Amino acid sequence: MSAIWERKVRTHFRRKDFDKDGVIHRKDFVGMAERFADKEKFDKKQKKTAAKCFDDLFSFYVSSAGKHSDALTEDVMVQSIRDLKDDSKFKKCLTDLLLSLLEPLDVNQDGYLDADEYRRAFENVGIVESDFTKAGFEALDTNHDGKLSFEEFVNALINYSCSDEENTTAVFGLVA
Question: How far apart are CA 131 and CA 142, in angstroms?
Answer without folding.
Answer: 19
